[in-house]
Amino acid sequence: MRNFRSSRPRRPVLRLLVAATGFALWLPWGVSAQDGAPPLPAERLEAQEEVLSSPTTYRAEDQGLAVLSVQSRPEGAQVFVDGEARGTTPVTIRDLDEGSHEVILYLVDHGAFRQTVEGRGGRIFVDLESEKSLGVGFVSVRTDPPDARIEVDGQRVGLSPLEVPLEAGSHAVRVSKPGFKDAETRVEVGPEESHAVQLRLEPREGALLVISSPVGAEVLVDGGGVGGAWEPLRVDDVAPGTHSVRVQKEGFRPWVKDDVQVRSAETTTVLAALQPERDYTWVRLYTAPPGARVWLDGRDLGVAGDEGLGFKASKGAHKLYLEVDPAVHPGFEPLEITVSLTEDEVDYSAEPLRLPAVDENYIHAVQLVERKQLEAALGFLDRVDPEHPSYGEARLLVVEVLQGLGRSGEIPLELEALLAKPQYHNNPTLNTALGYWALVAARSVPDGEAAGMLGRAVEALDRAVQSVDLFPPAHRDQLILQAHYYTGMASEILFNLTGEKRYVKKGAQAWEVFFARLELTPSVLDKGWVEKARNHRRSMEFLAKKLGG
Question: Per mean pLDDT, which of 111-120, 143-152, 288-297 is the most reliable?
Fold first, then answer.
């Protein structure tokens, strides 16, 4: 069982903070990567194509034309522009792009002739009777499935099926289609010869992204182990089709789904929520000092005396509230904690739950904050002993004071220092808070400092999503989404700052998990923020495809 502390919020303003112990974190969603983020790219990029040199070049702009006019003597010659059939002479072509274009004319019994035009048009006239023809043959390219992109010697020539005129010699033919593996072959072409090329494209593998709750479960795909899901586990190179996924962990009933569909070149997300084999835990609770009254989820359980307090609770997350009688034990604050019960039995005798002792410096600071004397409050807060139980709450009050003073750039360092202490290191609410404040502070610091700050924030957000059971139950769904949202935003900015491809992969995965969880709790966010998230997801997915990340 894991737990983390939280003090009872005595002032409404403290609810705006991340309490060291598990209160809801009311972080704004209004973080944007617009500053310095690239605009959304086009749906696809067209690769620049190499063109063959030609002894004769016409420039359209020199002739004041926006069309290409191709004529020959005799007429009736087939015309191919960049490998695509465009009719027979005389022909006018109006849809050329800027750049260099190869034009081949072919007429039976006369041969083939090549010219090159620069720009969107021009005039070409070829006397087939007097000019020397090229040694040209034809290759007919068909693919299964059709409509595949065809490249010959690295130059794009069109979509299959297609007949392509080629100079005599050896040529590399390559075909590609989204969702399929590329296929290629070489063909020897002789003058006046015709060749048929048939290529079959094999579907690309897909992938699985397995998220288990609790984390650390073993994942098997089609009976074979693929790893442990301590974080979202990505399984690459999964053949398209139906697969069986089994997620198992000691003490929990296995989660099995035999009809997981994987599509070519796509990632299928699997959310596996494991149920305990026994759905309750026997707890023996001890407190320091002894004699605290205990409430479980608002229900009074009694007093934990010298022999502790025994009770049974369902497995999962619960909120405990402990309070001592000040007449018997003066100088202690109430303690509120969230605990995650995963084992069959838990005994606190070795590590009793300690109620925080009151620190006078912290009390003075609280009073000064209430009187709006923020600078003076910082002085008292800095005097709180790091080993004192009030230290965590004191540093969180520092965060609140810095925010009030307009010094938000200092907040990430405060949170990092607090998270460096073992008792706070895996607190998911604190780690999520660091992610948010790092995004805020990164806007106003130099690029190098921003990159370091955001890199550490992404590590903190990873810890947050690995401890989701410790989020406050009432706001768990929202906080989990926030953690993935901030990871996606921080990764996008980190790529802009560093150019490192790993952040593209990290961001794309964060958005993938974000939307998978959003499907389970669609009412958590309004449509405006969901649309913003979709835009950033498209941006990262585009970059992942472009960079091969």
Answer: 288-297
